[in-house]
Amino acid sequence: MRTFLLLTFVINLWAYSGTDIDEKQILALCDRSDVAQVKRTVRTISRSDDLRYVPALVELLLFCPDSKPYVLSCLQSLTGEKWESYLEWIGFIGSHPYPTHDGYRQLRATLMSAIDPHLARFFANDYPSSIRLEEIVWGGVAKDGIPALMMPKFISASTADYLLDDERVFGLVINGVARAYPQRIMDWHEMVNDVVAETPVSIAYCTLCRAAIAYEGSTGSGIYTFSTSGLLYRSNKLMYDHQTETLWNQFSGEPVFGKLQGRDIRLKVMPLLFTTWADWLKTYPDSQVLDMETGYERRYEPGAAYKAYFSSPKLMYPVWNATDDAGMKKKDVLWIVRLAKASKAYALKRLIQNPLLVDELDGQRILIVTDGVPITVRGYFLAENQLEDREGELLIVDPDRNGIAFSRSQPVGANGAPLKLVPSHLAYYFAYQSLMPGVPIFR
């Protein structure tokens, strides 16, 4: 009943909108009280050859499922395609950038308000966008439906008896302060806003992309904190900042739709390790770890969330520009280095075959160490140091050939100080294909 009343309002609204696309006709497809009128509308739209109808019609597949046969008839007449589901049509639209009419943004806002009035606010203003609005899809939850953790409580590693040795944690070290964010908690919240060693940090975790990225919240234009919008772009989380409610690309750390878009802002990526609790504790015994008392009632058990998705080769949402190719499947895992001026991706299965690898990116030598079960990947800046195999023992040596014993978990340089970690994160191959075009992959 609520949906019908909403659509009645929308029809009346668009009857006086003055747009050159007859939105009243489009939305009349949702009003099944006059079937004869609906059939006349189908004929009118189908004979128009106006492809600007297509994006709006696809939205009706989600919001007016009872009218699906009529909507599909229009879509198939206009495009010649015979997809059946809403998500299939979203994938089709991704690869076919049809134009939209002037009122399309407001139409999205009005339809989204049927789910959550707060979702509608993202589309309500005429702010610039660097992504196509037709590719923004609802992720199945309301705004903040996956609640972010804001300045959460931490406990000492010695009292974190809820963690198992082999379960995974995301680890962050800033100016000697180490903090662990267990995956069992991150799966339920996906965003943590924290301050570590006086540095504002936001860990943005896109579970669909298997990518947890640590961003420094401080930028040249201010400090930002983030939450989950409930919207997706190419199966990637669109997060929003609390300060302006601009939508940001979780993968690139850039504002893409809203007040801040176009201001040349990009969040700085920080090193974030994905390792086991035992491995992390061995390296950082004085670490702090997220308290299970988050203020939310959730099943904070290993694998309680997303276990089926992580173990399936299928994606949950369409990504039109991602394919299986070159020996890589869409959900193969990559390790991605993110420097300020350059990035590079490495297939995890190749790193497993080459557990010690030295590569160069943007003029800097990087030591990549892959080991453990489950697998952990670390990257270190070598700077002036060199890696050498001396009678089977790996050493970091300085230019004077003074060897220092090599530790996989925390190698040190010629001056005895630990090598600096490289900003990096893991991600599925499809996310790299879709969201990082032009970034090289190590072959």
Structural notes for this entry:
This protein is of the alpha+beta class. The chain has 3 domains: 113 residues, no CATH class; 160 residues, no CATH class; 117 residues, no CATH class. The chain contains 13 helices and 26 strands. A 5-stranded antiparallel β-sheet has the order 1-11-12-13-14, with no helix packed on it. It has a 5-stranded mixed β-sheet with strand order 2-6-7-8-15, covered by helices on one side. Strand 7 and strand 8 form a beta hairpin. Helix 4 runs antiparallel to helix 5 and helix 4 runs antiparallel to helix 6. The longest helix has 14 residues. The protein is elongated and about 80 Å long.
Instruction: Note the overall shape.
Output: elongated
- Assign the structural class, choosing from mainly alpha, mainly beta, alpha/beta, alpha+beta, or little secondary structure: alpha+beta
The proportion of residues forming helix, as a percent range, comes to 25-40%
The low-confidence parts are 1-19, 399-404
Beta strands, count: 26
Task: Count the domains.
Answer: 3
Distance between the first and last residues' Cα = 56 Å
In short:
With 443 residues, the chain is of the alpha+beta class.
Write the layout of secondary structure elements.
Layout: H1 2-15, H2 23-28, H3 35-46, H4 53-63, H5 68-79, H6 86-95, H7 104-112, H8 117-124, E1 136-138, E2 149-150, E3 154-156, E4 168-174, E5 177-182, H9 183-189, E6 191-196, E7 199-206, E8 211-216, E9 218-219, E10 222-223, E11 226-233, E12 236-241, E13 247-249, E14 254-257, E15 268-270, E16 273-276, H10 277-283, E17 288-290, H11 307-311, E18 333-338, E19 343-347, H12 348-353, E20 356-361, E21 364-371, E22 376-381, E23 386-390, E24 393-397, E25 403-405, E26 424-428, H13 429-435
Parallel strand pairs: 2-6, 5-17
Antiparallel strand pairs: 1-11, 3-17, 4-5, 4-16, 6-7, 7-8, 8-15, 9-10, 11-12, 12-13, 13-14, 18-19, 18-26, 20-21, 21-22, 23-24, 24-25
Helix pairs in contact: 3-5, 4-5, 4-6, 4-7, 7-8
